[in-house]
């Protein structure tokens, strides 16, 4: 069984033949504003392997080791992906471009399919049986209609010299002009290395060891503001009263006064400080 790890699994209660080869991925537009095609596909008739919602959520309806029922003559060797398009039903409606979320989802899904089923990451050229129809394909490649001639990418089956019919309908624009224009970029992204996960933030280094914590003591007010001088760095820290009392009990000495608001030691002050002990 081949199930895409990134999909919501909604396998339809239907039986499909086991596939023996996988040659292409066919991209479709669903002509639907629905968040799921499961209710429709469960009843019979057409059914694709996947559906990609507007927000990029992927649903899987058929194991990709099985036929789908979305590409007529190509069903035996095709993995089919339907996509949301926000169909409105208004005259002249055209499928809009895939959303950024859909494009991202299609890239990830197609990359998985290509790796899982050994499908080449390249643009299919037509629907003819053989190498030219292998790769990333789209429904219109197997649809007859009055489409533009080659080299226009919107060309259909007839304009490309025939091939398998992916639909019995004539003039079906699936997946839409705007979406066909996006497919080369999707193929390029599929072939690029998958993005690496964001590395965790580095662990902050532990505080520097205080190798120089043997220094001089001075005070401005023996009860309020006593400072310990780190001689190497020329900086001070406030000595808590209890620590100062302990030092006074163990050591004797005399030190010059220092302003209470002083925080850095100039060479002048260092020269004036009288050493009287360490701890």
Automatic annotation (TrEMBL):
Comp. bias (Pro residues): 194-208
SUPFAM superfamilies (UniProt xref): N-acetylmuramoyl-L-alanine amidase-like
Pfam hit, one: Amidase_2
Renumbered residue ranges of the record's region Disordered: 191-213
Coiled coil stretches, renumbered: none
Example of a GO MF term: N-acetylmuramoyl-L-alanine amidase activity
Domain of life from the UniProt record: Bacteria
InterPro entries: Amidase/PGRP_sf (IPR036505), Amidase_domain (IPR002502)
Transmembrane segments: none
Domain N-acetylmuramoyl-L-alanine amidase: start-end pairs: 36-122
A single BP term in Gene Ontology: peptidoglycan catabolic process
Protein name: Peptidoglycan recognition family protein
Annotated organism of origin: Cellulosimicrobium sp. ES-005
């Amino acid at each position: 069984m081949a199930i895409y790890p990134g999909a919501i699994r909604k396998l339809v209660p239907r039986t499909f033949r086991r596939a023996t080869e996988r040659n292409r991925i066919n991209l479709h537009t669903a002509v639907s504003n629905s968040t799921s095609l499961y209710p429709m596909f469960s009843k019979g008739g057409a059914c694709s392997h996947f559906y990609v919602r507007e927000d990029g959520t992927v649903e899987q309806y058929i194991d990709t080791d099985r036929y789908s029922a979305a590409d007529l003559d190509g069903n035996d060797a095709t993995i089919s992906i339907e996509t949301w398009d926000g169909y409105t039903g208004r005259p002249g409606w055209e499928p809009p471009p895939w959303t950024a979320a859909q494009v991202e989802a299609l890239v990830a899904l197609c990359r998985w399919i290509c790796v899982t089923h050994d499908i080449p990451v390249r643009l299919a050229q037509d629907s003819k049986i053989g190498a030219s129809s292998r790769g990333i394909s789209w429904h219109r490649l197997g649809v007859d209609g009055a489409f533009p001639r080659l080299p226009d990418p919107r060309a259909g089956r007839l304009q490309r010299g025939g091939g398998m019919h992916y639909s019995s309908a004539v003039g079906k624009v699936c997946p839409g002009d705007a979406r066909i224009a996006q497919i080369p970029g999707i193929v390029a992204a599929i072939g690029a290395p998958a993005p690496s996960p964001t590395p965790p933030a580095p662990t902050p280094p532990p505080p520097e060891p205080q190798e120089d914590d043997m220094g001089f003591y001075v005070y401005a007010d023996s009860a309020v503001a006593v400072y310990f001088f780190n001689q190497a760095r020329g900086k001070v820290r406030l000595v808590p009263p209890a620590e100062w009392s302990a030092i006074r009990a163990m050591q004797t000495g005399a030190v010059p006064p220092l302003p209470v608001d002083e925080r850095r030691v100039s060479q002048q002050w260092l020269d004036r400080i009288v050493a009287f002990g360490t701890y």
